[in-house]
Design goal:
The complex is a heterodimer of chains A (122) and B (254).
Chain A lengths: L2 H31 L14 H19 L13 H24 L11 E4 L4
Helix pairs in contact in A: 1-2
Chain B lengths: L16 H27 L8 E2 L6 E9 L3 E7 L9 E5 L7 H4 L6 E11 L2 E6 L2 H4 E3 L9 E15 H7 L6 H12 L4 E9 L2 E7 L18 E10 L2 E13 L3
Classes of the chains: A mainly alpha (122), B alpha+beta (254).
């Protein structure tokens, strides 16, 4: 199995689990968590792609909300101190990725000349 | 609010005085960084030679003999002012698609082709018009076409798709180039080998598998990478055909 097949297999498994989560969450989970969603069905297919991508977060939030552990007020109090750190890390990381990508590139092997190994008919 | 004097930006109100200079500097800095980054990344790419669709030539129509290598070629027998008899044209369809299905069954037959020329230096190709306007068999006896064997060669360079190399795109380097070329080759656009140095007067060759088969799947992993490879070389008209031996494929260390 090469790298491309591994990546494809991972995407299939991730998407497959995401589809199961979406089915369960949109069928009955969302009704228990959000009373405004009860009886509203048209919007549900619209959030399927999002659930396919971030289904672990959906499961986590589902667990937190269903268990009554949600401290909703904290969501409106972002940890601003850590923002500075991430604001620095992100550009450094982006520059690092670009630099690493450029440094591992091959160079055009201009000095490798074509060689005739055998004459025609040999 | 702990500090009532601290300026606060509200988009639909006038900008507070102390923030104006900061916003102005931030705008200039962001624009400058984008321009500089674009310039720096662009400067790492090779200068693309003049190439592309030659719409200025207008649609070209020529007659010749279809050969399937298995990628379809036209050995021109009756040309025009631009495309002379004796020339060998690679043929492609629109988008990232070849014309294998349309040329099937026409091998060795006289055909009239019509389309737009793509050109890059000495390499060129015709993108056929749709349907029978682009490719149709015509009456007449097709002359026999010669193939000149040139022996076995070891060459260095890269596998690319003939259409992008000709200027449909401007091939760069790296992952995006590799993905683009792979997509073209999956769509049956003729593959070409771009050589580091001239071989028999040409720096590119149409690639096939051994014994006139399609480009082997084993070669797809090496698309867009700088490699060395061995294979048999032959000349059809003014075009070289390289029958690649995938067992000899190696990525260069340079």
């Amino acid at each position: 199995m090469d790298q491309a097949e591994l990546i494809l297999l991972f995407a299939k498994i991730w998407g497959g689990v995401g589809a199961l989560v979406a089915l369960a969450f949109l069928s009955f989970g969302i009704d228990r968590l959000d009373e405004d969603a009860k009886g509203a069905y048209v919007f549900r297919p619209l959030i399927v792609p999002g659930i396919l991508l971030i289904w672990p977060l959906v499961l986590w939030r589902w667990y937190i909300l269903a268990d009554g552990k949600d401290e909703w007020a904290k969501r409106y109090k972002p940890k601003r101190n850590s923002h500075n750190l991430f604001a620095l890390i992100m550009p450094v990381l982006i520059i690092g990725i670009i630099a690493a990508g450029l440094s591992v590139r091959q160079t055009w092997p201009v000095n490798l000349a074509p060689v005739q190994l055998t004459e025609p008919g040999q | 609010m702990s500090n009532d004097d601290k300026p606060f930006f509200v988009g639909y109100l006038d900008v507070p005085g102390p923030l104006r200079r900061f916003l102005l500097l931030a705008c200039v800095a962001v624009i400058g960084i984008f321009v500089a980054t674009g310039f720096l990344i662009g400067s790492t790419q090779d200068e693309p030679p003049a190439s592309g669709f030659r719409f200025d030539y207008g649609r070209q129509t020529v007659t010749g003999v279809i050969e399937l290598t298995p990628y379809p070629l036209l050995r021109v027998t009756q040309g025009n002012d631009l495309i002379k008899p004796g020339k060998t044209l690679m043929l492609t369809g629109q988008g990232k698609f070849g014309v294998d299905a349309r040329a099937m069954g026409l091998e060795g037959q006289l055909a009239e082709v019509s389309g737009i020329i793509l050109q890059r230096g000495t390499i060129d190709m015709m993108q056929l018009a749709g349907g029978r306007r682009g490719l149709k068999m015509i009456e007449g006896d097709a002359p026999a076409m010669e193939t000149e064997p040139l022996g076995r060669w070891k060459v260095a360079g890269e596998i690319c798709d003939g259409k992008c190399l000709n200027g449909a795109m401007r091939p760069g380097r790296g992952l995006a180039h590799k993905a683009c070329a792979a997509l073209c080759l999956v769509g049956d656009v003729p593959p070409v080998f771009v050589s580091t140095q001239l071989i028999e007067g040409s720096d590119f060759m149409l690639i096939t598998g051994p014994d006139g088969t399609r480009l082997p799947k084993a070669a797809y992993d090496y698309i867009g990478q700088f490699i060395t490879a061995e294979g048999d070389l032959e000349r059809r008209g003014d075009m070289l055909i390289f029958k690649i031996d995938t067992d000899t494929l190696e990525v260069t260390d340079e």
